[in-house]
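Repro:
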Amino acid sequence: MHILETRNLKYSYNNDIEALKGINFIAGRKQKIAIIGANGAGKSTLFKHFNGILTPSSGEVLVHGEPISKSNLKEIRKTVGIVFQNSDDQIFSPTVEEDIAFGPTNLGLDEETIQHRVNETLRLLSIEHLRDRVPHHLSGGEKKRVAIAGVLAMEPQVIVLDEPTAGLDPRGVKDLIGFLNELPEKYGMTIIFSTHSVELVPEIADYVYVLDKGAIVAQGGVRDVFGNEELLNEIGLEVPVFPRLIKSLNRRGMNIDMAFTFDETEDAIAREFSRLK
C-alpha cells in the first residue's frame, strides 16, 4: 500500500480554469520525490491536495489507501505535513517556541510531550538560540527553519516542501540538502518537494515527476528524466549543470561517465584523468 497516492486527480479554479488534469501520483515510504515544472505548472495546487487543503473537482487523494474526507482530515494532517513556499504564511505565534508548539498542541498532546517535541525540533534544525525570538523579526532562512520545525514537531510520515530553498543563501541551501537527506533514514519520513532549481533535484531526489500545464508529462529516476533534454527544453526547464558540463567535455574528446551531483562528477572526472595518465 502506498503512503500517498492520487488517482486521476483533477482540479479547476472557479469551475473554469483547469489547474490539474488527471494526475496519477504515488509516493512510497522513505522516498525522496521531486516535482519540477515551470511557473504555473500546478505544483503548489497539487501539494494543497495532499493533506486536504483543497478538494478535488474529480478523482481522489488517498493516504495509506484511505481517501481523504472530512471525517479523517485531522488524521490525514498528522500524517502529511506541508511547508509552504512563503514562510510568513505559516508562522504567526508571538515566539518561535510557541509557533513550533502550535501543531502538537492542536493534536491534543500532553504538555510534557509537546515540550519534548519542541526541544527536539529546535535541536534538529539548530535553532535553539531562536526559541524566544519573535518569528517575524527573523531572516528569511531562519523563518524557513522555523516553518519546517513547526511541521516536524507534528511528526508526520510525509513532509511536503514547496520551493524549500526560496530565500536561502548558499550555506542555507547546503544545510537544507543535508538535513532533508537524513530524514528518510533517521526518521522514516517520505520527502516530497518542488523546486525551480534543477541543480537541487539530483542532490536529494530518487524519483522525479515533471509537471507541465497541470499534467504529468514525464516521471522516473533522475537519470531518466534529465536524460530527456528535448522534453525539458520544450517546457522551459534545463538539464542540471553537471551533466551539461560532462556532455560538453565529451564532445571535446573526453570519455567521462555521466554524473549528476557534485560528488559523482568529481569522481567521474578523476577516473577519466587516471585513465589518461
